[in-house]
Amino acid sequence: MINFKRTDHINVCVPPEGLEQAHAFYRDVLGFEPIERPDVFGKPGYWFKMADIEFHVGIEKPIGKTFRHTAFEVSDLAAARKHLHQHGVEIFEEPDIPNRIRFTFNDPFGNRMELLEYNK
């Protein structure tokens, strides 16, 4: 049995020519805090802090549309939706899951992300 403690980090990939655009999107639109990235990987990339999780952006050739995604719980889904709309991010409605409301969006490189809020 594996005794999981927490999620340490999430990694998404963007094409090499989109790395600076990704840095701006995650920093300026989503509000992630840039943090130091160790220089041991041999490829460029960025790391951010998001709540108590690190969010890593690396480079890789795009693979096309996929169902893979990360899901983040937020404290005010309506405010998150409004914020993303103000930044021109397209929202995709998703069926509610019991006790959760949610939607998805793609970053500028097709990385699918879900935001959700638990019903109280």
Write the layout of secondary structure elements.
Elements: E1 9-14, H1 19-29, E2 33-35, E3 46-50, E4 53-59, E5 69-73, H2 77-86, E6 91-93, E7 100-106, E8 112-118
Parallel strand pairs: 1-4, 5-8
Antiparallel strand pairs: 2-3, 3-4, 6-7, 7-8
Query: What Rg is obtained from the alpha carbons, in whole angstroms?
Result: 15 Å
Question: Class by helix and strand content?
Answer: alpha/beta
- CATH homologous superfamily assignment: 2,3-Dihydroxybiphenyl 1,2-Dioxygenase, domain 1
Q: List the uncertain runs.
A: none
Strand content: 35-45%
Distance between the termini: 32 Å
Tell me the CATH architecture: Roll
Mean pLDDT: 91
- Record the strand order, biggest sheet: 1-4-3-2
Strand count, sense and barrel status of the largest sheet are: 4 strands, mixed
> Globular, elongated, flat, extended or rod-shaped: what is the shape?
globular
Task: Please give the oligomerization state of what you see.
Answer: single chain
Order of helices and strands: EHEEEEHEEE
Tally of helical segments: 2
What does this protein look like?
- The strands form 2 sheets. A 4-stranded mixed beta sheet has the order 1-4-3-2, with helices on one face. Strands 5-8-7-6 form a 4-stranded mixed beta sheet, with helices on one face.
- The chain has 2 helices and 8 strands.
- With 120 residues, the protein is an alpha/beta fold.
- Strand 6 and strand 7 (100-106) form a beta hairpin.
- The model has no long low-confidence stretch (mean pLDDT 91).
- The protein has one domain (9-118): 2,3-Dihydroxybiphenyl 1,2-Dioxygenase, domain 1 (Roll), CATH 3.10.180.
